[in-house]
Amino acid sequence: MKRLSWSMLLILGLLTSCTDDKPAGESGTEVATAPAAAETNTPGESIAMNGSFQPPVAAEPSALVNTLTTDFWVWEYYVVDDKATRLANKGRWFKLSADGTYENGRWQDKTGYGSWRLLNQDGKQILQFDNIDDRQDEQWEIQGINQENDTMTWAGVKDTKSEGAILKAISLLTRPTRQQFGVAE
Asked: For residue 102, which of 94, 110, 93, 90 has the smallest C-alpha distance?
């Protein structure tokens, strides 16, 4: 089924790349096509497609990439001044793949997908997410990883919408549940 989904995406991509309906001077580097909702979601999930994302680029192999592409990374703690924002971000998750793609969501729901990159900016490891829903685009500095490689600290990057936030991400084998985190439904 996964192979069929990728094949359909490839065919759709090839078909849409055969025409050039962009105004002169506009870059063609963004991917505007996406798999159908039935191919990407479990029942009851919906994804807002309010934008596009850059084509994925396979991540350079490294110990950090191996850590990032293992299991689900779940936000256990999200630290900002606003309590409602803290609560709204608890249980968010990311599932990164070495091919440069990712999926994300909250609790059992998938809310987006796109491409990710690990950048080195002035010696800092920056995790950049480019989501099909542009409202979910974000950048985080990876500030620390524990010895077991199952807990990380991310800080929002200056001059981005994540600026001022800091979070603790933990590795889980599956999407998180409210029960695991003691959160009422």
From this structure: 94
pLDDT per residue as tens digits for the range 55-111 = 899 999 999 999 999 999 999 999 999 999 999 999 999 999 999 999 999 999 999
Which tokens hold the place of 183?
Answer: 């959160």
CATH topology of domain 2-181: Lipocalin (2.40.128)
Burial class (CB in 10 A: 0-12, 13-18, 19+), 123: exposed
